[in-house]
Amino acid sequence: MARNLVLILALTSLCIGLAAADWNILSKKSKNRDASSLKIYCESWRINYTADSERAMEEVRLHVSSCCALQGDGKDAWIFDVDDTLLSTIPYYKKHGFGGEKLNATSFEAWMKQSKAPALDHALKFFHEIKDKGVKIFLISSRSETLRSATVENLFNAGYHGWSGLTLRGLEDDFMKVQQYKSEARRALTKEGFRIWGIVGDQWSSVEGLPGAGRTFKLPNSMYYLS
Question: Where is the signal peptide (predicted)?
Answer without folding.
Answer: 1-21
